[in-house]
Amino acid sequence: MKKGQIYEGYVEWLEFPNKGLVRCNDDGNIAAVKNVLPEQRVSFMVNKKRGGRTEGRLIEVLERAPYEINSACPHFSECGGCAYQNVPYEKQLEIKKAQVGKLLCPVLERQRLLDGADIHEAACAEDAAAHLDNVVYSIFEGIKASPAQFEYRNKMEFSFGDEYKDGPLALGMHKRGSFYDIVSVRECKLVDEDYRKILSCVLEYFTAISAPYFHKINHTGYLRHLLVRKAKKTGEILIAVVTSTQGEYDLKPLVERLLALSLRGKITGVLHTLNDSPADVVRSDRTDVLYGKDYFYEELLGLKFKISQFSFFQTNSLGAEVLYQTAREFLGDISDNGKNDSVVFDLYSGTGTIAQLLAPVAKKVIGVELVEEAVEAARENARLNGLDNCEFIVGDVLKVIDEIDVRPDFIVLDPPRDGINPKALMKIIDYQADRIVYISCKPTSLARDLEVFIDNGYRVKRAVAVDQFAGTAHVETVVLMSKEMA
Fold it and tell me: Which residues are catalytic, by number?
């Protein structure tokens, strides 16, 4: 295949998260193409050849997959926020289960070979999906569904921009495959009606006063993002308008309009966050409270959590209950004959959800988290829930664990998407904890880290995928490891 040429082919497999392996009709060669589905026939243009791998850009879906349906979201064809809105939910789960299984297959093969299994018995075929039963399923338990397929998100970061160059102001998500163009997702199906009403209100207000959006190239303009967080259980809503300091606009009328909206939930705070960073990220140089307070409360598995603008919290509250119940089940009984004598480390602890779920059956739980705001929220959450055996430390796991003067009996890991720093990983292994539960939002990073654990004496005992992101290509995975006794 030549760069710049257009080819047609059949999508045989979907690599995590959304790269289809397309077999070319002409010569049988394989190209990786984004935003396709297994069993589609597509045309694509080769745009990259590197290290023996060919990548292409989708031109057209020539023939839909037999299971495809019409998306319930009118923005799906343009918006880059979702990948599977045109796929029945059971098929979405099937795709994600197969992806995670294929990534775990060589990891578990490695484990079985180290344990002395016959090489032919342990080998994984290329078509891992067809061999999961005899290779993976003794350990990999498939996938757990999200309790809700639509309107499940408790946080959205909308961007200001225009839908096309010099077009009218837009507020929503990036167009599929575009860094600049924005789709005003007034009917997004991942969030409930309150989000959609808030988005429309904010967009109409700033359109009426002709406020300019912040241009990503020349770094000029005012409007940057709209952050909306809403608790699924309590219904409390926190809104933050994120702008640069390049302009002064009266936001009091906007607050009045927002408070006048007929919402199912209740607005507890409206914030104005100032951000002059050139990077296209939601961050704060300064935050002013325009109304109410700068936090809200959510409830999870009987516990109460105070969540602020930038606190890490799972974006699917109902799905998070499934995720954390799974992690707690995998970790098992951490008490010693009914005595709460164990020490648990919750590394990359966010707002301390897992730590507080484990605190009642542990002597002490120590959480480590890089984001100071999240740690402050975790400490407040522990006080709210009457837990006095939780300690939360601000800092990088790589550095902080050298300063902790106790050793853990059990460890829970919930790292960012890129996984665990290799140096931190070896320090974690050196603790020789009895059991480790690893929660991952990126199975490729998980597979890489698991190989290191296996090579250093740990064994994967259980694994399961948990769908936190229905309609999208993302998936969580929970893994239990225990120390292999010599």
Answer: 441
